[in-house]
Write a structure and sequence with these properties.
alpha+beta; 14 strands; Ribosomal Protein S5, domain 2
Length: about 260
């Protein structure tokens, strides 16, 4: 019996008995710490520790041309890098399917919740602000979706707003804050050995049968992403959406407490 089989048996047996590593509940996050201002050359940044998962997010603004179909708006672009130091399965090189999915899920929640009013990023004809959200996975131990979204929203909430004067971007001096119109969080659930849990650690994630990420603000579900080959019943989805709304209160509190006045 190899190590992977032993680990899977261990995870499944514990969940069957209603027990998780560390004694946490089925719908309970691991310990979470959030620190802002880790990247001095970024407009905004945040580093999150979710259990042993560590993610760093930097936000940068620059002036560019608006999209052709939205000439009076700025844009948001999210990218993720799974650093080789974070896990033995990550390799240097072009973005993997996993990193592309992670970026899209984080981006979709932020965009759908209208966290940034893109029209307010318009400068003048042919010029607008582009917001770049760069996500760096420093250590992997499960649930990059919620770690990445939480850190990204915290970084945006604390980002400075450069000025554009005389065809130059001014990043120093008395700068205001990037205007945030809303706040979204995400909760990712997985079905492991027939049991649904929130915030999988690395071992639980390895043996997950189905995954569902729910992104919401205080008023509504803004985005959902289903992953893996398994499924959830309509009743289960309703329960998970309800749980996401409850858990998002704590996530918003953590993000808001990280703000710099």
């Amino acid at each position: 019996m190899n190590i992977s089989t032993i680990t899977e048996q261990y995870v499944r047996e514990r969940l069957t008995k209603g027990v998780r590593e560390g004694g946490r509940g089925m719908f309970e996050f691991r310990n979470m710490t959030l620190e802002i201002g880790k990247m001095i050359n970024a407009e905004g940044s945040a580093e999150i520790n979710l259990g042993n998962t560590k993610v760093l997010v930097g936000v940068k603004l620059d002036v560019g041309e608006p999209m052709r179909d939205k000439p009076d708006e700025g844009s948001i672009m999210t990218g993720c890098e799974l650093l080789p130091l974070a896990h033995h399965s990550y390799d240097a090189g072009p973005p993997s399917a996993e990193s592309v999915e992670l970026a899209r899920v984080i981006d979709r929640g932020i965009r759908a919740a209208n966290i940034i009013d893109l029209k307010k990023l318009f400068i003048e004809e042919g010029k607008s602000w582009n917001v770049f959200i760069d996500v760096y996975v420093l250590n992997y131990d499960g649930n990059l979706f919620d770690a990445g979204t939480t850190a990204a929203v915290a970084a945006l909430s604390n980002a400075r707003m450069p000025r554009y004067e005389d065809s130059k971007v001014i990043r120093e001096g008395n700068l205001g804050k990037l205007e945030i119109a809303n706040m979204a969080t995400s909760c990712t659930f997985a079905k492991v050995a027939g049991t649904i849990v929130l915030d999988t650690d690395g071992n639980e994630e390895d043996f997950s049968e189905a995954r569902l990420t729910v992104a919401n603000d205080e008023k509504a579900v803004r985005a959902m992403q289903k992953g893996l080959g398994g499924s959830f019943t309509p009743k289960e989805v309703d329960k998970l959406v309800e749980t996401a709304f409850e858990k998002s209160k704590d996530l918003r509190r953590i993000i808001k407490s990280s703000k710099v006045d």
